[in-house]
Amino acid sequence: MSVxxxxxxxxxxxxxxxxxxxxxxxxxxxxxxxxxxxxxGRIPNLAVGLEPGRYSLIFHPPSPFFTRVELDVELLEGxxxxxxxxxxxxxASYRGx
Length: 97
Prior knowledge:
Elements: E1 3-11, E2 16-17, E3 22-27, E4 30-36, E5 42-50, E6 53-60, E7 69-75, E8 78-81, E9 84-87, E10 90-93
Parallel strand pairs: 1-8, 1-9
Antiparallel strand pairs: 1-2, 1-5, 3-4, 3-6, 6-7, 9-10
């Protein structure tokens, strides 16, 4: 069984992708991967070849209020796409495809 993860960040206040956003992947206290979103707001392959388990995605979005957004996820098998929608006043995520 193998797990992979990708992400993207959308600035919902402008309706534009958020490029240059740092995203980190942790399992427990240990960092596994990190990257910055491209001009399209995406990190197509943040991590591949992971074991199933619990992980933390930490986003550092372009918001004057949300300076760090942490999502704890359970990844079982296959590919997971975890987007972040962020504005100065709110944020949301979902399991994408």
